[in-house]
Specification:
Number of strands: 9
Number of domains: 1
CATH topology: Rossmann fold
Distance between the termini: 22 Å
Shape: globular
Order of helices and strands: EHHEHEHHHEEHHEHEHEHEHHH
CATH superfamily: P-loop containing nucleotide triphosphate hydrolases
Strand content: 5-15%
Radius of gyration: 18 Å
Strand order of the largest sheet: 1-4-5-3-6-2-7-8-9
Bound molecules: adenosine-5'-triphosphate, magnesium ion
Number of helices: 14
Length: 340
């Protein structure tokens, strides 16, 4: 049974008092696996849910933007071994944007730093059942999935500091590269998206994400050195494709932290678009203080400041991702759950 963040306390450091009130917990569904078959409607009796409703009204006032559910579940690894390029920020904000617009989404925090868990306001202190228990000990994701407060149909598999030891502990485990894939394949809930927030390395955790995923989303920071190391990442993806996961492809590149005052940002954009053409999303995420403030409140920029450029850009990026996904063939892989 999936957990609710309110049932277990939140890790956001500057929560509004209302957010932690007893009784504000949205109970998880009674159903085994807990992820409801249909996306849940927005519930307006909770403070956080009211913020989510406000976000939708601000971002999509006429309701004309739709984010169609994909014909089959999409598992997307958000990866770039370069640190601080916006992997976590993009994972959290895209997940919230997709969930606010009718998709059933799960974020898997695969980074021992636990930043995605913090950004979603999900408990991830020592002892919390987490992705470590799933990948190393084989615990079911059904037992670990935590409902994100205030956002309908959004779940998180948190990461605790235990994950820091996982790469070493997995070395002697059978099929160590496919542990996360196995966990995902045996999850009983139906989902439209699984977004995996990778750590800034190409180690075994990232390999697990790339074996479990069908798509890779690479955030690229519009700064000097942005493209350094990208070749290494692409070579690793090719190796995994050749030996471990033939379905894997780089489906999406998202330009982040774009500072329009600098010529460099524009040069990086031109270079990335020239090289990767249509897989680069039209939406570009600007550098914005509001985006970097939101995680301190256990919130996404979507709910923290829905009127900001940062929120609009992630909203547009999520729309593009959803529209591209709607064109996917409905073919289902082995154990593939989700879709309509
Ligand atoms: N668009 C933005 N504008 C301003 N700051 C941002 C933006 N996106 C991310 N940041 C900030 O930059 C820092 C790095 O972002 P983030 O944690 O998302 O990167 P990451 O790739 O996940 O990092 P790591 O490699 O450590 O996991 C964070 O402090 C975040 O708040
Ligand atoms: Mg991160």
């Amino acid at each position: 049974m999936a957990r609710s963040t309110s049932q277990r306390g939140r890790s956001g450091r500057h929560l509004a008092p209302d957010a932690t009130k007893a009784g504000s917990a949205k109970q998880p569904s009674e159903k085994t696996g807990s992820v409801p078959q249909q996306p849940e409607p927005l519930d307006d009796d909770l403070p956080l849910a009211r913020e989510a409703q406000r976000a939708v009204r601000v971002l999509n006032p006429s309701g004309s933007v739709t984010m169609p559910r994909p014909p089959r579940r999409r598992v997307i690894a958000v990866a770039n071994q370069k640190g601080g390029v916006g992997k976590t920020t993009s994972t959290v904000n895209l997940a919230v944007a997709l969930a606010l617009h009718g998709n059933r989404v799960m974020v898997i925090d695969l980074d021992p730093q636990g930043n995605a868990s913090t950004g979603l306001g999900v408990e991830h202190g020592a002892g919390t059942p987490s992705v470590y228990e799933a990948v190393v000990e084989g615990m079911s994701l059904d037992e670990i999935a935590t409902k994100v407060d205030g956002i309908p149909s959004l779940y998180c598999i948190p990461a605790t500091i235990d994950l820091a030891g996982a790469e070493v502990e997995l070395v002697n485990v059978v099929a160590r590269e496919a542990r996360l894939q196995k966990s995902i394949d045996t999850f009983s809930g139906e989902l439209d998206y699984i977004l995996i927030d990778c750590p800034p390395s190409l180690g075994l955790l990232t390999v697990n994400a790339l074996v479990a995923a069908e798509e890779v989303l690479i955030p690229i920071q519009c700064e000097y050195y942005a493209l350094e190391g990208l070749g290494q990442l692409l070579r690793n993806i090719e190796l995994i494709k050749a030996h471990l996961n033939s379905r894997l492809r780089v489906s999406t590149i998202l330009l982040t932290m774009y500072d329009k005052r600098t010529k460099l940002a524009d040069q990086v954009e031109q270079e990335v678009r020239g090289h990767f053409s249509e897989i680069v999303l039209d939406a570009v995420v600007p550098r914005s203080v509001r985006v970097s403030e939101a995680p301190g409140y256990g919130q996404s920029i979507m709910t923290y400041d829905p009127g900001s450029r940062g929120a609009t850009s992630y909203f547009e990026a999520a729309e593009e991702i959803a529209l591209r996904g709607a064109k996917l063939s409905p073919r289902r892989g082995k154990n593939q759950k989700g879709g309509n």
